[in-house]
Amino acid sequence: MEFDEWGPENPEPQHSKRSHRMRRLSSILIISGVIVGVLPLGTVAYGAISQWTLQNDWNNSIAAESVAQEAVANQGLHSDLEDYVFSTDPIDLPSASGNGELPKTKIFIPKIGVDQVVVEGSSAEALKNGPGHYNGMALPGERGNVGIAGHRVTWTKPFNRLDELSPGDLIILETVDKRYEYKVVESVVLDPKDTSMLRPTQDSRVTLTTCNPKFSARTRLDVQGVLTNTVDKNPTVVRVLGGIKEGIQAALGSSDNEPRADTFAVLTEEELLLAKTEDSPDDPTPYMHLGVLMLDEDRPTEAIEQFSTVIELSPENALGHFYLGLAHAESGSPSEAITNYRTAISINPLLEPALHQVGKQLLNERRYPEAIEMFDRAIAVRPLEAQNYLLLGRAQEASGNLEAATDAYSTVLKYTPDDEDAVKGLERLGIILGD
User: Fold this and answer.
1) Which long-range contacts (CB under 8 A, 24 or more apart) does 78-86 make?
2) pLDDT value at position 35?
3) Which of 137, 171, 307, 411 lies most in the core, judged by the most C-beta atoms within 10 Å?
C-alpha cells in the first residue's frame, strides 16, 4: 500500500503543521487588513459624491436667490415670479421655537478647511451625506444651542481636525440669506452618553460633536462656540419673499396642503419636462430645467437649444443667460460663453457665478485690471468662496501688486489650509510659511 509523502507511516512533522497554521493566519490578517483599508475609502467616496450633490443644490439656491432679488427689485411685489424662481422649495426663515425645518445651511470652519452642506438629522444614515443637525435643537442664528454632529474619519469626515480648534477660532453657519459667525469658547472630551454640552442655552451657541479619538468611539469631542456676528446677505429679498410665499406657490399651482403632482418640483424626468413644455409652451421654467438636466448629462448642444428658448420667452432672465454661457463653454465656444455671462451680469450684477467665469476669462486673456475688478465684485457677493481669492491673487501677482496678492493667497489658506496653489503663490512671493 502506497502513501503520500505525509501519511500514516510518515506523519507530518510538528514544524510543518505550525507553518500551515502560520500561513493561514497570515492570509486572514492580510484579508482583514485589506478590508480595514478599503472600507474607509469606500465610505469617503460615497460621502464625496453626496456632498457634491448637496453643494450643487446649494449653488442653485444661491443663484435662485440672486435672480429672485432682481425680480423683486425690478418688477415689484406683483411680478410673475414663476419666470424667475429656480426652486419651489419652501422658504424657511428661522423661528424662535427651534422646532422648524432646518433651512439650507452650510458650515465653514476656516482654520481646518471645512466647507460642507449640513443635512437634517444625526442618524447614521444622515451622517453618511454630511454633518447633521440634531433634530429639535435650535436653528442657525436662533437663541439656543445649534447641535451639529459629524464623522471624524469616514464618509464626508467634516470634523476630522476638530481637535485643532481653540478659543477664538471661527465657526460659520451660512443660509441662503444670512451668515452667522460663532467663535469657539470651549472644547471638551466627554463620555459618549454625556449630553450636557447639547442642552439648550439662553444665548445663541453652536455645538459640534464627533467621535474621539480618531478611529474610535471611546469618547466624544464637543466644541462649542458663541454667536458674535450676523451678516444679512439679501435681507430685502428674504423679507419680501417670506411675505409672498403663498403667492409663489399659487403661481406654481401648489399649496402647502395640496401639492400638485405636476409642478416642476417633482418633474425631474426628461419625459415629464417635455410634456410640461407641450402643455405650457410659453412657460420658461421647464425649458430651464431641461437645459440643466442636459448640461449635467454632458449634452451641451441640446442644452443650448433649451436655454435659448428660456431667453426667447424671458429675455431678462439672468440665470438663463448664465446657463446658456455654461453650455456654450462646454461646447467649445468661449466667445459666446463670455457674451452670455456679461449679459447675465448686466441684468443681475450680483450673480456671482457669472462674475467668476468672466474673471477667469479675463485672467486667461491677461487683462489683469479687469479680472481684478470682477473677482473683487464676486468676493463682495460671496466672501467665503476661496476660489475667487485664489484667482484674485494670481491677477494681483501678474499685475505686480505683491502685497495685495499676498493678502489674497493668505485668505485662501484661512478657508482651505492645504490649498497647494495658494501655498505656491506665497512661495513665489518669498513668503516663508510655518507648519
Assistant:
1) 80/251, 81/244, 81/247, 81/248, 81/251, 82/248, 82/251, 82/252, 82/283, 82/285, 83/284, 83/285, 83/313, 83/314, 83/317, 84/317, 84/319, 85/248, 86/60, 86/288, 86/319
2) 46
3) 307
> Would you give the distance in Å from CA 150 to the centre of its chain?
15
- Any residues with CB less than 8 A from the CB of 123 and at least 6 apart, and which? 132
Domains of the chain: 105-234 (2.40.260.10), 261-428 (1.25.40.10)
C-alpha cell read off for 397 = 501677482
Count the Cβ atoms, other than its own, within 10 Å of residue 122.
18
The three three-digit cell numbers of residue 77, written as one number: 411685489
Length in residues, the chain: 435
> How many angstroms from the chain centroid is the CA of residue 99?
24
**For 329-365, what is each residue's pLDDT tens digit?**
988 988 899 999 999 999 988 888 889 999 998 999 9
Contact 393, 422 (CB under 8 A): yes
Residue 408 above 50 pLDDT? yes
Q: Which of 186, 183, 188, 185 is nearest to 220 (CA)?
A: 188
Task: From residue 116, give the alpha-carbon distance in Å to each of 54, 110, 415.
Answer: 8, 12, 12
C-alpha–C-alpha distance, residues 356 and 309, integer Å: 25
- Cell numbers describing residue 291: 437645459
d(CA 239, CA 177): 10
**364-395 pLDDT tens trace:** 999 999 999 999 998 888 777 788 999 999 99
DSSP state for residue 103 in the 8-state scheme: P
Dihedral (C-alpha) 46, 48, 50, 56: value to the nearest 10 degrees? Answer: -160
